[in-house]
């Protein structure tokens, strides 16, 4: 297959009616935090057991088109000794991989962060591709206050997102471009909208500058919501604000916008996605790429006990099904 065919096939497989992406790419410290909340110690074995269990959920592929893996999982065997990427493919699910190397302070920009991981990226991508990864993910974050994010944080993160995306496409790997405007803080929905509009405008400018083909990427943004500490907005208010910003900034040639859940509860993120899909038509598919919002109920049901396996799988299946309905505005709480 040519690189163009690889990219188009992966887009067709990822962006499908009634389906979204499962983000299971928590880094070692993040999964340790999630496991500690359910009283489980995070070890290579416990991570393998949990992830193997959820990826084996019967018919998971009905509503999940792709799974984002952490590097460790990409090379792991399931409990039945099947390579995890192969297990996903047999479920009709595309395996993907988180490739950024985390984030840290941006020098001379107090309060802002920059994402690392461009050095050596091409050779890592080649290795991940050989292990079965067909798409990748890179996350940049933007803190929000009256003054944040700074101009240099927006420009610098947009630039690295674009350079990452260009390298992925060069190797036939679909890039998921994830600019997350963080929910932490007391800011209003109007302030989130203002920051999101600016961030997306700069990100697409950088993608254009680096000649990234919009047809062969997926955008993974945050929804436009008020800060966590501010008064909540209704799903309709969130949908209206989100779509207003996206219609101004996201080219119609982008095939899919797949939201992160970013600290919303499972129920909120489903209701908000449903509201977004109740206004239309829009030029892009609007779906989910949730981590916590898909996995939290499954993790609670599992609680580290193999005997709870079926309950955990049922909990994941339920969230995937409901989000599959929200993907076309057919969910009712
Ligand atoms: P959440 O849905 O938990 O925000 O995770 C999505 C993700 O992949 C963050 O990078």
Radius of gyration using CA atoms only: 19 Å
Q: How much helical structure, as a percent, in the residues?
A: 40-55%
For the report, how would you describe the main beta sheet?
A: 8 strands, parallel, barrel
The hetero compounds bound to this protein are:
1,3-dihydroxyacetonephosphate
Shape: globular
Straight-line N-to-C gap: 44 Å
Please identify the oligomeric state.
single chain
CATH classification class: Alpha Beta
Question: Number of helical segments?
Answer: 12
The poorly predicted ranges are none
Q: What class, by secondary structure content?
A: alpha/beta
How many independent structural domains?
1
How many β strands by DSSP? 10
* CATH homology-level superfamily: Aldolase class I
Q: Biggest sheet: strands side by side, in what order?
A: 1-2-3-6-7-8-9-10
Task: Spell out the helices and strands N to C.
Answer: HEHHEHHEEEHEHEHEHEHEHH
Strand content: 15-25%
CATH architecture: Alpha-Beta Barrel
Overall mean pLDDT: 98
GO molecular function, one term: fructose-bisphosphate aldolase activity
Keywords: Glycolysis, Lyase
Protein name: Probable fructose-bisphosphate aldolase class 1
Family: Belongs to the class I fructose-bisphosphate aldolase family.
């Amino acid at each position: 297959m040519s690189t163009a065919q690889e990219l188009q096939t992966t887009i067709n497989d990822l962006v499908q009616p009634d389906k979204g992406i499962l983000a299971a790419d928590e880094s070692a410290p993040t999964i340790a935090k999630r496991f500690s909340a359910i009283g489980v110690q995070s070890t290579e074995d416990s991570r393998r057991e949990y992830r193997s269990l959820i990826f084996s959920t019967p018919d998971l592929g009905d509503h999940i088109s792709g799974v984002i893996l952490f590097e460790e999982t990409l090379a792991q065997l399931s409990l039945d000794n099947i390579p995890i990427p192969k297990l996903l493919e047999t479920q009709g699910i595309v395996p993907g991989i988180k490739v950024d190397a985390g984030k840290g302070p941006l020098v001379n920009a107090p309060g802002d962060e920059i994402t690392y991981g461009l050095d050596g990226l091409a050779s890592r991508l080649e290795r991940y591709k050989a292990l079965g990864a067909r798409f990748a993910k890179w996350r940049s974050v933007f803190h929000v206050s009256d003054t944040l994010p700074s101009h240099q944080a927006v420009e610098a993160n947009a630039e690295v997102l674009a350079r990452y995306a260009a390298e992925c496409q060069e190797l036939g790997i679909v890039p998921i471009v994830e600019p997350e405007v963080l929910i932490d803080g007391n800011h209003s929905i109007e302030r989130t909208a203002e920051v999101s509009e600016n961030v997306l405008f700069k990100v697409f400018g950088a993608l254009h500058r680096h000649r990234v083909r919009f047809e062969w990427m997926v955008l993974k943004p945050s929804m436009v919501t008020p800060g966590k500490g501010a008064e909540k907005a209704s799903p309709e208010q969130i949908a209206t604000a989100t779509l207003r910003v996206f219609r101004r900034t996201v080219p119609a040639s982008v095939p899919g916008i797949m939201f992160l859940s970013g600290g919303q509860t499972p129920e909120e993120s489903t209701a908000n996605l449903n509201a977004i899909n109740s206004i239309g038509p829009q030029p892009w598919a609007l779906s989910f790429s949730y981590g916590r919002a898909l996995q939290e109920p499954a993790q609670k049901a599992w609680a580290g006990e193999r005997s709870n396996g079926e309950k955990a799988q049922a909990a994941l299946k339920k969230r995937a099904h409901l989000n599959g309905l929200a993907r076309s505005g057919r969910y009712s709480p």
